[in-house]
Amino acid sequence: MSETEKVSKELIFIIDDEETIRDGCRQVLEKSGHSVITAGNGLDGIRIAREKHPDLVFVDLKMPGMSGLEIIDILLEDIPYIVLVVITGYASIVSAVESMKRGAYDYLPKPFTPDQLRAVTKRGLEHRNLRIEAKMLRDAKEQVEKDFITFVSHEMRSPLVTIQQYMEALKIVAGGCLSDEAVNIIERCDKRIRNLEDLVEHWLDMSRIENGTLTQKKEPVNFAAIVARSMDEMMPLCQRRGLEMEKELPGDLPSVIGDEESLVRVLINIIGNATKYTPSGGRINIAAEYDDLDVTISISDTGAGIPQDKIPFIFDPFFRGKGKDDRQRGSGLGLSFCKRIMEAHDGKIDVSSEEGKGTTFVLRFHR
Amino acid sequence: MTAKKKVLLIDDDKDFLMATRLILEKSGYEVFLAEDGKSGVDMVKSVAPDLAIVDMMMETWGEGFEVVSKVRSMEQGKDMPLIVLSAVDLQGPYQAFEPSEESPKVNMVLHKPVKADDLIKYVGELIG
After folding, report:
1. How far apart are the C-alpha atoms of B128 and B123, rounded to whole Å?
2. Which residue has the higher pLDDT, B44 or A3?
3. Does residue B27 lie in a domain region?
4. Which of A19, A39, A361, B43 has the fewest CB atoms within 10 Å, i.e. is most exposed?
5. Do A165 and B113 touch (CB under 8 A)?
6. Is this prediction's pTM over 0.80?
7. Which of residues 142-171 of A touch B (CB under 8 A)?
8. Non-local CB neighbours of B71 within 8 Å, separated by 6+ positions
9. Is this prediction's ipTM beyond 0.95?
């Protein structure tokens, strides 16, 4: 059967051990323009259904061998959008209710008339089409969201990148002709553009997390590697800001399941934060420990600390602390990003802080 | 005096091309511009550059990748130093900066925007 035929002509499948029922149903339904296939027992029923992917299945609940309920479970699991109607041999409302609890859509008590069969069939097929339509609408909505993110990402980031490249060119082209004041202006522009770039980047990350398109691998991740990568990345910044950074990791730190890239970014975000709020001469320490249940990574600084009344809000989008330098503005999305990523890992992020002494962020993962 | 080394830039953003050209020209390279993948590939043949820089963030990621594959399959391009420019959301074999076995070999992956000093240094290291 070709695809187009399948679309125009719904395939109905009757699983019943009574030949008269099978033949009767076939005659009625074929007359109303449907394709009909039949099986005389549960096992054949499942085999044929897997192969033919029928749109609507009638299953007799009372057959020798496999029980109707078992067949329902298997078919619902195996075949997407399948609609099941149970045929109850006796007026047993109990078994009909049980089937519907398991996911059958409707039931048809024996004996039934051709009109009843046609009515149930019509209802079942309508239900199936509605479900398919709903799925298509959901997919379309997701696609629009994804396209929008791609669009924004390209359209907002490209001009920023180009402006930055022009400023690089300006420095080269104008070279020695620029006064210190002019160089300073260019640097300030540069910084603000980078802030804007971060904002776009973080905003995109948040949108990606929300619609599930942020690539999240699920593979064993090695914390030593994550810490090392994050420290490599952030060391130059620490040095520029006059901060020391150290790690204390047990050698046998167990791995957890997660996405290395996003965890590196979580650490980079937290370390970056620490550099903003820690005065020159301060220290950032990264430590890890584990027990039978959890692995925890803590990132401590000797910075300004967070006022107690602000702690409940620091993971909220667009919350910003007051940095040691007002120009060091972040996007205000970094910590909410971290929190979302930790949630995606079934983990937790906590913070403890004492004003004037420092702040510690703790990342907790289940083993 | 020896002839200037030729660098081909392939990017669909005219302004990015212009900015990058200014940087490279100032360092004494002769710079050729292509605004899309196809003309870029053609120019590898007609210009025979010493090095090409390809943006992987053109209209689609596939376009940049296709340019790299085509260039590598050409006589003029198979040994030419090739730099690809990536963006943060680069998807594909160059994403992790560790191209897979079957992806065509590039000499370097740089992030956009590229610091002028870095660009000059890396191009210098590749073609002098």
Report:
1. 7
2. B44
3. yes
4. A19
5. yes
6. no
7. 153-154, 157-158, 161-162, 164-166, 168-169, 171
8. B41, B44, B52, B54, B77, B80, B82, B104
9. no
Q: What is the DSSP string of A4-38?
A: HHHHHS-EEEEE-S-HHHHHHHHHHHHHTT-EEEE
Is B125 domain-assigned? no
Mean pLDDT is lowest, of A5-9, A96-100, B12-16, for A5-9
| Model pLDDT for residues A60-84, shown as the tens digit of each residue | 988 888 888 889 999 999 888 899 9
| Chain A to chain B Cβ contacts (< 8 Å) | 51
A276-297 burial code (b ≥16 CB/10 A, e <16): bbbeeebbbbbbbebeeeebbb
Which residues form the domain of B24? 6-114
CB atoms A168 and B19 under 8 Å = yes
Closest B-chain CA to A154? B57
Residues in A touching B64 (Cβ below 8 Å): none
Average pLDDT over residues A176-188: 87
- Inter-chain touch A201–B112, beta carbons under 8 Å: no
Q: Number of folded domains in chain B? A: 1
Q: Is B120 a domain residue?
A: no
| Domain contains B123 | no
A285-324 tens-digit pLDDT: 999 999 988 999 999 999 988 888 888 888 887 777 665 5
Q: What is the CATH number of the domain that holds B98?
A: 3.40.50.2300
